[in-house]
Structures are given as structure tokens and as C-alpha cells.
Design brief:
heterodimer, A: 16 helices, globular, B: 304 residues, mainly alpha, 15 helices, membrane (chain A), MetI-like (chain A)
């Protein structure tokens, strides 16, 4: 009876004319208004400014008045000596972060799922996601303190083993590892939350049935839990691939010093420096546009691949 | 003992399961310690004698307990103006975020809204493509928002990802029957939203509030590029000077080598103390919101 009623209202809704539906729902557009206004002003209006990438910006003449230069800014970027280096640094950091940072939260969530002692479970969960609330400035500050050559905790350990202190932040070969692993430290707990949520929804009966059939816990992880969280994994993976070129400006910038610039200069820090520090607006916008376009292509490709392989996709 | 750690059934389990449990607990315990210890160390180091910290004597407990670092921090004015500014920016910014996110998420949860698909696309598109740094910067300038709080709180007013999470929450946790019943009782969408939806949506509001507030509290980049007056700087910009650019905070009239050494140690102490002081609000807030995480974040988790 109840179900039938529901169906009927649904049909009514579809048969309603557009005008009627608008009249019935106009209040919902009021709810949308603040968000829409913000979005148009601060996301879409700046897109209009992208034309700067094809102009030689002159502050006196404004965006519209500055002369067109075609693809000159782009060719200049592609031919610049930094181009290759920036691209390699950006991709290296993001792939490294992805490969290390992606599976660890999944392992954490799967492991937590099998802890019987609730207090221990809660402790692990609360503690591992606490660092997420620490600011990037503080995180890099902590790194500086721990890795410092005079009295830093890590170097005290190094000394304890009879070696000379290492200038970690000043040596290129350590930089990527420090960047990636501190990121894992900061966000594994937070990133695990979404998998923990999905795992909580796996039916207990399935686990019981498997246990009766003699499955070990390891087998249950592999044949029940993993398949159940696979759609979530795929979505998260697509989203992280979508930001492969967009790795955080903040942390890389804060971790930079003249000694590690060779590996720490990435596209986003470069955009900031040439754009806002050197005021080369047109060139900087071009570099930014190149970055966004590559990003979009990566996202679309991964999304399409995911659609084919696992039938899960963003849209 | 074993029962306490691994649960009642541990003893009766097969060998494979016992191995699994033991390895699992070791891994989780290690992860927990790896995360916890650095945080713990900073707290105990901030209360210890600088010489003991530098000498590697502070490992599990503070040594040479003192509050000199904190005393010095209290004297440093910029930190407190920064603190005040950050509180204002966070409060205003978070309110704006919530006012734009929550109602919009509710509207998007009503699937019969005409034009919902293209509208959603309009939002989602901005997650992956944007104007970039310079066009945004020029826009903020042309709106004369630079060097004001508005440059910090308005451009990021809607987090599209958060909007999607909140929409999923509304879709999944508020039954359609509730709406139908309220319509029968004469509710329009305004009344329904304010009287019925908001009161039962505390979990998602709490989670959104936490995420946005932490974001504002921790952000420094917009302040760095838009603010000129030092008196308007938020805490993170001041922290950057102390922690990253190694700016001296303690008095600088030291002459003798000994005094210099002492001053350097004090500067180290200030760093530990400043980290504790700066992280306190966020860390204090989250246990209160944590209980809502299960309901808010978990139901709202990404579903595309």
C-alpha cells in the first residue's frame, strides 16, 4: 500500500510541467543562491582571466587592453631550461605520494576492522587522525626541528649509531622521502575514515558464513572486505589522480630552501614565484593553464579507464 | 591478559588467525606510536630545559621542568594579535562556508529540482578546473578586497567536495516520508529546512564546521599574498616567521658568547611552545566533534 503510494507521487512528479515544478521548487533555488553566487564570482569569473595566458599583460591597460601574443607564453615555458625539471619534480612527488599514501590508509582501515578491543581500536583511530588537524606551517616546523643538525631528534639517533649528523633538509636526495612520508604521517588516519565507514557497512552475516566455511581472517580480508570497499577505492583513486599535477603548493613552498631547490621546485611554487613575486602575469597564467589542462586530461583518462575496468566512475 | 588485548575468542582460534591478530596488532600499535611520539615529544620538550633537549636527555618525560619558552611567547605580541586575527577569520569564514554549503547541499538532495544536473555539473567542474592563481589574484584586487578579511574568507566560500558529502548525508539520512508528511502539515521548503532538516542534521553540520574551521585556522597562503598590514596577519603567518624563517623572538641584546648560546636555546624552546599553543584550538575541538564523525562523515562519504 505504502509503496504503491510512493510510486504514484513519483509519477505525478514526472508528469508535472516544467513551469509547475519550478513554481513548486522555487524556494530551493534560494537555498542554492549563496553558493552559486560565490561559485560564479570566484570560480567562473577568474576563468575569464585565463585569456591572460595569451596576452602580454600590461597593468595600465588591464586584461582586455593588453596585446595578444598567441602561444608565445607557452612556447617560452616549454623552451625554458626549468621546464623539464619542473615537470619531473611535480610528477615524481605526486606519483610517489600516490603509491605510498594510497594503500596505507586502506591497510589501516582493514586492520582496525579486526580489532576486538574497542578501546585500543578507538585509541588507534583518534591518534592516527590527530595530525590531520596540524597546519602545514606547523608540520614543516616540526620537520625542521626534528631533522635539524643541532640537537634534532633524528640526528641524535644518527649520532647514537656513531655517524655524523646529516643535513636532511639541505640535501636533495632526502627531500622527496621527507615530503611524502611526512604526508603519510599527517593524513593516513584521516584518509582511512572513509574506508572505515564503508567497512562498517559490510554485513556481519557474510563474515559469519565465511567463518563457518572455515575461512581465515586473512582470507576474509581478501575475499569479503576488499571487494566491498573496491568502489570506494576506485573513486578515491580517480579523485587523487585528478590532482596529480595539483599537489599542494603550501608544503613544498615551506619545505624549500636554496639547497634543495633542484628537487623542491614544482610547477605550483614556480607559478607563485614568477607570477606574484616577479609579476609576470601572462607567463604565470600560461603555466597555470598548462597545469590545469594536463590535470583534466589525466582525470578524464583515469575516469574512463576505471569505467571500463571496474564499472565505477565519477559520473 | 591475552583476552584483554585480543578479545575473548583469541584462544580458540586457528593458528592462521592467531598469527593474523598478532601481526595486525603489532602493525597498528607501531603506527599509533609513530604518530603519537613526535606530538608527545614536542609537548614534553616545550616544558623541559633547552640544554637537556639539545643533549638528547628528554625521551619519555620532561627534564628540568620550566616554562621559560611559554613566558617568552606570552611577551611576544605578534603571536597574540595573530591569535586574535585567526579567531576572527575562522569564525567569519566558517559562518560564510556553512551558509553557502548547507542550504545548497539540501537543495541538491532534492532530486526533483528542475535543472539539477546541469547545476551540479557547474559545481563539480570547478573541482578540476579553475582560473588559476593570477586571474583570481587580479579579481580580488579589482574588487578591492586585498588587505581585508574578505580576501581570506570569500574566495573559498563553497567547498564543492564538502557540498557533495553534505548532499549525500541529506539524501541518505533524511527519509522522503518526512518531507511528504511535512507537506501534508502545510510546510513549505523554508519551514521544512529550518524547522525539521536543520535540527536533525547536527552531525553533518558539526563535521562541516570542523573541516572548514580547521581549514581557516591553518591557512596562510591567502594571508601571505593578500595582506599587507602586519596587524592583520593571522597566526600561521607569524608562525611561519618563527618556525620556517627562523626569526629570532627572544630579546636580542646578548653580547657574550654564553648569552648567545643561551638565547639560541631559548629560541628552540619557543618553537616547541609555539607549536603547542598554535595547535591547541584545533586539537581541543576535535574530540567534541569526533562523536559526530561516525554519523556525519560516514553517511556522507563519497558516493559520486
Amino acid at each position: 500500500m505504502k509503496k504503491g503510494q510512493k510510486k504514484q507521487t513519483k509519477e505525478n512528479r514526472h508528469s508535472m510541467s516544467m513551469g509547475k515544478r519550478l513554481k513548486k521548487n522555487w524556494q530551493l533555488y534560494i537555498f542554492l543562491l549563496p553558493a552559486l553566487a560565490g561559485l560564479i564570482l570566484f570560480s567562473y569569473v577568474p576563468m575569464y582571466g585565463i585569456q591572460l595566458a595569451f596576452r602580454d599583460y600590461n597593468p595600465l591597460r588591464g586584461i582586455m587592453g593588453s596585446p595578444w601574443v598567441g602561444f608565445e607564453n607557452f612556447t617560452r615555458f616549454f623552451h625554458s631550461p626549468q621546464f623539464q625539471n619542473l615537470l619531473i619534480n611535480t610528477l615524481a612527488i605526486s606519483f610517489y605520494s600516490l603509491i605510498v599514501g594510497f594503500p596505507i590508509p586502506i591497510i589501516l582501515a582493514l586492520g582496525l576492522n579486526y580489532v576486538a578491543n574497542l578501546r585500543f581500536k578507538k585509541a588507534v583511530q583518534s591518534i592516527t587522525y590527530a595530525p590531520y588537524f596540524i597546519s602545514t606551517v606547523v608540520l614543516v616546523g616540526i620537520l625542521n626541528i626534528f631533522l635539524s643538525t643541532d640537537g634534532g631528534l633524528i640526528n641524535q639517533l644518527v649520532k647514537f649509531f656513531g655517524r655524523d649528523p646529516i643535513l636532511f633538509m639541505g640535501q636533495s636526495r632526502f627531500w622527496r622521502h621527507i615530503y611524502v612520508w611526512s604526508g603519510v604521517w599527517q593524513s593516513m588516519g584521516w584518509n582511512a575514515v572513509i574506508y572505515i565507514a564503508t567497512l562498517a557497512g559490510v554485513s556481519a552475516e557474510m563474515h559469519e558464513a565465511a567463518t563457518i566455511d572455515g575461512a581465515t581472517k586473512f582470507q576474509r580480508v581478501f575475499w569479503i572486505d576488499l571487494p566491498m570497499i573496491l568502489p570506494t577505492i576506485v573513486i578515491t583513486l580517480i579523485l587523487s589522480c585528478g590532482s596529480i599535477m595539483g599537489i599542494g603548493f603550501e608544503k613544498a613552498y615551506l619545505m624549500q630552501n636554496p639547497l634543495n631547490l633542484g628537487v623542491s621546485e614544482i610547477i605550483s611554487t614556480y607559478i607563485y614565484k614568477i607570477g606574484l613575486v616577479n609579476s609576470e602575469y601572462g607567463f604565470s597564467t600560461a603555466v597555470g593553464l598548462f597545469n590545469s589542462v594536463v590535470n583534466c586530461i589525466v582525470l578524464l583518462t583515469v575516469n574512463q579507464a576505471a569505467k571500463r575496468i571496474s564499472k565505477t566512475s565519477l559520473w | 591478559m591475552i583476552e584483554k588485548v585480543f578479545g575473548k575468542q583469541f584462544v580458540n582460534q586457528s593458528l592462521a588467525n592467531k598469527v593474523f591478530d598478532i601481526v595486525n596488532h603489532i602493525i597498528l600499535f607501531t603506527l599509533m606510536m609513530v604518530v603519537l611520539y613526535p606530538l608527545y615529544f614536542i609537548v614534553i620538550a616545550s616544558f623541559s630545559s633547552p640544554v637537556a633537549v639539545a643533549g638528547g636527555e628528554v625521551i619519555l618525560f620532561p627534564k628540568g621542568f620550566n616554562m621559560d619558552g611559554y613566558k617568552e611567547i606570552f611577551k611576544y605580541k605578534d603571536i597574540w594579535t595573530g591569535y586574535g586575527n585567526s579567531i576572527i577569520y575562522t569564525a567569519v569564514g566558517t559562518s560564510i562556508n556553512l551558509i553557502s554549503t548547507i542550504p545548497a547541499a539540501f537543495a541538491f538532495s532534492r532530486r526533483d529540482l528542475p535543472g539539477i544536473k546541469p547545476l551540479m555539473l557547474l559545481f563539480v567542474f570547478t573541482m578540476f578546473f579553475g582560473g588559476g592563481l593570477i586571474p583570481t589574484y587580479l579579481l580580488v584586487q579589482s574588487l578591492h578586497m586585498d588587505n581585508t578579511i574578505w580576501a581570506l574568507v570569500l574566495p573559498g566560500a563553497v567547498g564543492v567536495y564538502n557540498l557533495i558529502v553534505a548532499r549525500t548525508f541529506f539524501e541518505q539520512s533524511i527519509p522522503e516520508e518526512l518531507y511528504e508528511a511535512s507537506v501534508v502539515d502545510g510546510c513549505d521548503y523554508f519551514r521544512y529546512f529550518f524547522r525539521i532538516v536543520l535540527p536533525i542534521s547536527k552531525p553533518i553540520i558539526a563535521v562541516m564546521m570542523l573541516i572548514y574551521a580547521v581549514g581557516h585556522w591553518n591557512s596562510y597562503f591567502s594571508a601571505l599574498i593578500y595582506l599587507v598590514d602586519r596587524s592583520k596577519f593571522p597566526l600561521q603567518v607569524i608562525l611561519r616567521e618563527i618556525l620556517i624563517q627562523q626569526q629570532q623572538v627572544a630579546g636580542n641584546n646578548a653580547m657574550t658568547l654564553d648569552a648567545l648560546e643561551q638565547q639560541r636555546h631559548l629560541a628552540e624552546m619557543i618553537k616547541y611552545g609555539v607549536i603547542v599553543v598554535a595547535s591547541l584550538p584545533a586539537l581541543c575541538m576535535y574530540p567534541f566533534v569526533q562523536k559526530h564523525f561516525v554519523k556525519g562523515m560516514m553517511i556522507g562519504a563519497v558516493k559520486g
